[in-house]
Design the sequence.
Protein backbone atom coordinates (compact mmCIF):
# COMPACT_ATOMS: atom_id res chain seq x y z
CA UNK A 1 0.00 0.00 0.00
CA UNK A 2 2.81 2.42 0.86
CA UNK A 3 4.51 1.67 -2.44
CA UNK A 4 1.27 2.23 -4.35
CA UNK A 5 0.65 5.49 -2.48
CA UNK A 6 4.14 6.76 -3.33
CA UNK A 7 3.60 5.90 -7.01
CA UNK A 8 0.29 7.78 -6.97
CA UNK A 9 1.97 10.85 -5.48
CA UNK A 10 4.73 10.71 -8.06
CA UNK A 11 2.20 10.36 -10.87
CA UNK A 12 0.23 13.30 -9.49
CA UNK A 13 3.37 15.45 -9.40
CA UNK A 14 4.15 14.58 -13.02
CA UNK A 15 0.58 15.37 -14.06
CA UNK A 16 0.76 18.72 -12.25
CA UNK A 17 3.83 19.66 -14.26
CA UNK A 18 2.69 18.33 -17.61
CA UNK A 19 -1.03 18.95 -17.57
CA UNK A 20 -1.09 21.88 -20.01
CA UNK A 21 -1.34 20.43 -23.51
CA UNK A 22 1.09 22.19 -25.85
CA UNK A 23 0.59 25.51 -24.07
CA UNK A 24 3.94 26.85 -25.28
CA UNK A 25 4.49 25.05 -28.56
CA UNK A 26 5.77 26.26 -31.93
CA UNK A 27 3.51 28.96 -33.35
CA UNK A 28 2.10 30.07 -29.98
CA UNK A 29 1.77 33.78 -29.24
CA UNK A 30 1.64 35.17 -25.72
CA UNK A 31 0.90 38.68 -24.50
CA UNK A 32 1.76 39.54 -20.93
CA UNK A 33 1.35 42.46 -18.56
CA UNK A 34 2.81 43.05 -15.16
CA UNK A 35 5.05 44.89 -12.73
CA UNK A 36 8.52 46.09 -13.66
CA UNK A 37 10.89 46.88 -10.81
CA UNK A 38 13.93 48.75 -12.20
CA UNK A 39 16.83 48.71 -9.73
CA UNK A 40 19.91 50.62 -10.94
CA UNK A 41 23.38 49.81 -9.64
CA UNK A 42 24.46 53.30 -10.53
CA UNK A 43 27.50 55.49 -10.10
CA UNK A 44 28.77 58.64 -11.77
CA UNK A 45 32.16 60.09 -12.63
CA UNK A 46 33.02 63.43 -11.00
CA UNK A 47 31.39 66.39 -12.70
CA UNK A 48 33.58 68.05 -15.33
CA UNK A 49 33.09 71.72 -16.23
CA UNK A 50 33.86 71.85 -19.95
CA UNK A 51 33.53 75.56 -20.67
CA UNK A 52 32.53 78.87 -19.12
CA UNK A 53 31.25 81.59 -21.43
CA UNK A 54 32.51 79.62 -24.42
CA UNK A 55 36.06 79.39 -23.06
CA UNK A 56 37.37 75.80 -22.59
CA UNK A 57 38.03 74.92 -18.98
CA UNK A 58 38.13 71.10 -18.56
CA UNK A 59 38.02 71.31 -14.77
CA UNK A 60 36.91 68.23 -12.82
CA UNK A 61 35.26 68.69 -9.45
CA UNK A 62 36.60 65.90 -7.21
CA UNK A 63 34.37 63.79 -4.97
CA UNK A 64 31.17 64.73 -6.78
CA UNK A 65 28.64 62.40 -8.34
CA UNK A 66 25.09 61.16 -8.53
CA UNK A 67 23.08 57.95 -8.40
CA UNK A 68 19.83 56.81 -9.97
CA UNK A 69 17.09 55.59 -7.62
CA UNK A 70 14.89 52.51 -8.18
CA UNK A 71 11.46 52.87 -9.77
CA UNK A 72 8.35 50.81 -10.55
CA UNK A 73 6.24 50.79 -13.70
CA UNK A 74 3.82 48.79 -15.86
CA UNK A 75 5.43 46.33 -18.27
CA UNK A 76 4.13 44.80 -21.50
CA UNK A 77 5.53 41.97 -23.60
CA UNK A 78 4.70 39.98 -26.73
CA UNK A 79 6.23 36.52 -27.19
CA UNK A 80 6.23 34.26 -30.25
CA UNK A 81 7.41 30.62 -30.14
CA UNK A 82 9.40 29.74 -33.27
CA UNK A 83 9.89 26.19 -31.98
CA UNK A 84 8.75 24.39 -28.83
CA UNK A 85 11.88 25.65 -27.07
CA UNK A 86 12.92 28.89 -28.79
CA UNK A 87 10.95 32.12 -28.59
CA UNK A 88 11.40 35.78 -29.40
CA UNK A 89 10.03 38.48 -27.13
CA UNK A 90 9.46 42.22 -27.52
CA UNK A 91 9.43 43.96 -24.14
CA UNK A 92 8.29 47.53 -23.46
CA UNK A 93 6.23 49.46 -20.94
CA UNK A 94 5.49 52.82 -19.42
CA UNK A 95 8.86 54.56 -18.90
CA UNK A 96 9.77 54.65 -15.20
CA UNK A 97 10.58 58.01 -13.61
CA UNK A 98 13.81 57.86 -11.62
CA UNK A 99 14.90 60.29 -8.93
CA UNK A 100 18.55 61.35 -9.14
CA UNK A 101 20.40 61.88 -5.85
CA UNK A 102 23.75 63.48 -5.19
CA UNK A 103 26.74 61.50 -3.92
CA UNK A 104 30.09 62.57 -2.49
CA UNK A 105 30.09 66.32 -1.88
CA UNK A 106 26.71 66.51 -3.60
CA UNK A 107 25.07 64.11 -1.12
CA UNK A 108 24.21 67.09 1.10
CA UNK A 109 21.62 68.21 -1.47
CA UNK A 110 19.65 64.94 -1.55
CA UNK A 111 17.50 64.75 -4.66
CA UNK A 112 18.99 66.74 -7.53
CA UNK A 113 16.36 66.00 -10.17
CA UNK A 114 14.60 63.27 -12.10
CA UNK A 115 14.57 61.53 -15.47
CA UNK A 116 12.37 59.13 -17.45
CA UNK A 117 14.02 56.05 -18.97
CA UNK A 118 12.73 54.38 -22.15
CA UNK A 119 14.17 50.88 -22.63
CA UNK A 120 12.34 48.62 -25.12
CA UNK A 121 14.13 45.33 -25.75
CA UNK A 122 14.15 42.34 -28.10
CA UNK A 123 15.09 39.06 -26.39
CA UNK A 124 15.60 35.53 -27.75
CA UNK A 125 14.86 32.84 -25.14
CA UNK A 126 15.56 29.15 -24.78
CA UNK A 127 12.84 27.37 -22.76
CA UNK A 128 13.71 24.13 -20.97
CA UNK A 129 11.52 20.99 -20.95
CA UNK A 130 8.86 20.19 -23.53
CA UNK A 131 5.80 22.17 -24.59
CA UNK A 132 3.42 20.27 -22.30
CA UNK A 133 5.33 21.13 -19.12
CA UNK A 134 3.56 23.62 -16.86
CA UNK A 135 6.70 24.98 -15.21
CA UNK A 136 9.27 26.13 -17.78
CA UNK A 137 12.44 27.97 -16.81
CA UNK A 138 14.34 29.79 -19.53
CA UNK A 139 17.44 31.82 -20.32
CA UNK A 140 17.52 34.72 -22.72
CA UNK A 141 19.87 37.07 -24.54
CA UNK A 142 18.85 40.23 -26.34
CA UNK A 143 19.41 43.84 -27.22
CA UNK A 144 17.95 47.04 -25.82
CA UNK A 145 17.82 50.67 -26.92
CA UNK A 146 17.68 53.18 -24.10
CA UNK A 147 16.90 56.87 -24.32
CA UNK A 148 15.87 59.49 -21.80
CA UNK A 149 13.26 62.23 -21.59
CA UNK A 150 12.17 64.83 -19.05
CA UNK A 151 15.69 65.25 -17.71
CA UNK A 152 15.09 67.87 -15.04
CA UNK A 153 17.23 69.51 -12.36
CA UNK A 154 14.76 70.35 -9.59
CA UNK A 155 17.09 71.31 -6.73
CA UNK A 156 17.62 75.07 -7.05
CA UNK A 157 19.67 75.16 -3.85
CA UNK A 158 22.20 72.85 -5.54
CA UNK A 159 22.40 75.12 -8.61
CA UNK A 160 22.67 78.29 -6.53
CA UNK A 161 25.50 77.04 -4.34
CA UNK A 162 27.50 75.06 -6.89
CA UNK A 163 27.21 77.43 -9.87
CA UNK A 164 25.68 80.85 -9.23
CA UNK A 165 22.73 82.34 -7.33
CA UNK A 166 19.67 82.44 -9.54
CA UNK A 167 21.27 80.32 -12.29
CA UNK A 168 19.17 77.89 -14.31
CA UNK A 169 20.37 74.41 -15.26
CA UNK A 170 19.05 72.08 -17.97
CA UNK A 171 20.13 68.50 -18.63
CA UNK A 172 20.22 65.91 -21.41
CA UNK A 173 21.42 62.29 -21.61
CA UNK A 174 22.83 60.37 -24.55
CA UNK A 175 20.92 57.28 -25.85
CA UNK A 176 22.63 53.91 -26.31
CA UNK A 177 22.32 50.30 -27.52
CA UNK A 178 22.92 47.69 -24.80
CA UNK A 179 22.90 43.90 -24.33
CA UNK A 180 20.21 42.21 -22.21
CA UNK A 181 20.88 39.12 -20.07
CA UNK A 182 17.71 37.39 -18.93
CA UNK A 183 16.58 34.41 -16.83
CA UNK A 184 13.10 33.47 -15.68
CA UNK A 185 10.28 30.97 -15.64
CA UNK A 186 6.61 30.66 -16.50
CA UNK A 187 3.89 28.52 -14.96
CA UNK A 188 0.86 27.51 -17.01
CA UNK A 189 -2.35 27.86 -15.01
CA UNK A 190 -4.19 26.24 -17.93
CA UNK A 191 -3.71 26.00 -21.69
CA UNK A 192 -4.13 29.76 -22.16
CA UNK A 193 -3.17 31.60 -18.97
CA UNK A 194 0.30 31.92 -17.46
CA UNK A 195 2.13 33.60 -14.63
CA UNK A 196 5.78 34.47 -14.97
CA UNK A 197 8.78 36.01 -13.28
CA UNK A 198 11.98 37.14 -14.95
CA UNK A 199 15.17 38.90 -13.93
CA UNK A 200 17.22 40.89 -16.44
CA UNK A 201 20.53 42.69 -16.27
CA UNK A 202 21.20 45.55 -18.69
CA UNK A 203 24.64 47.24 -18.62
CA UNK A 204 23.70 50.85 -19.47
CA UNK A 205 26.00 53.87 -19.46
CA UNK A 206 25.21 57.39 -20.61
CA UNK A 207 26.86 60.78 -20.90
CA UNK A 208 24.78 63.39 -19.08
CA UNK A 209 25.34 66.95 -20.28
CA UNK A 210 24.35 70.12 -18.40
CA UNK A 211 23.88 73.70 -19.53
CA UNK A 212 23.81 76.30 -16.78
CA UNK A 213 22.79 79.85 -17.53
CA UNK A 214 24.22 82.25 -14.94
CA UNK A 215 23.06 85.64 -16.21
CA UNK A 216 24.82 86.26 -19.55
CA UNK A 217 27.35 83.45 -18.89
CA UNK A 218 26.76 79.90 -20.14
CA UNK A 219 28.46 77.04 -18.31
CA UNK A 220 28.73 73.63 -20.01
CA UNK A 221 29.46 70.52 -17.94
CA UNK A 222 29.06 66.75 -18.11
CA UNK A 223 29.45 63.45 -16.33
CA UNK A 224 29.38 59.79 -17.32
CA UNK A 225 26.77 57.74 -15.44
CA UNK A 226 26.66 53.95 -15.16
CA UNK A 227 23.08 52.81 -14.54
CA UNK A 228 23.43 49.00 -14.92
CA UNK A 229 19.91 48.11 -13.73
CA UNK A 230 18.60 44.76 -12.58
CA UNK A 231 14.99 44.55 -13.78
CA UNK A 232 12.39 42.14 -12.40
CA UNK A 233 9.15 41.46 -14.28
CA UNK A 234 6.27 39.77 -12.46
CA UNK A 235 3.51 39.19 -14.99
CA UNK A 236 0.35 37.44 -16.16
CA UNK A 237 0.25 36.17 -19.73
CA UNK A 238 -2.42 34.97 -22.20
CA UNK A 239 -1.79 32.57 -25.08
CA UNK A 240 -3.61 32.91 -28.39
Sequence:
Amino acid sequence: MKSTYKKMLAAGAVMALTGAAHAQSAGSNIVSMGWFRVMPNSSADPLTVDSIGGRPVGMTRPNTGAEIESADTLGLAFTHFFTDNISGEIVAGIPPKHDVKGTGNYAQYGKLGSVKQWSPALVVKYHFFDAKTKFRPYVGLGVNYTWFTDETITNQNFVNREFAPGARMTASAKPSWNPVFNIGATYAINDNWFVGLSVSYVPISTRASFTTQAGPVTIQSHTKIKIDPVVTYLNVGYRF
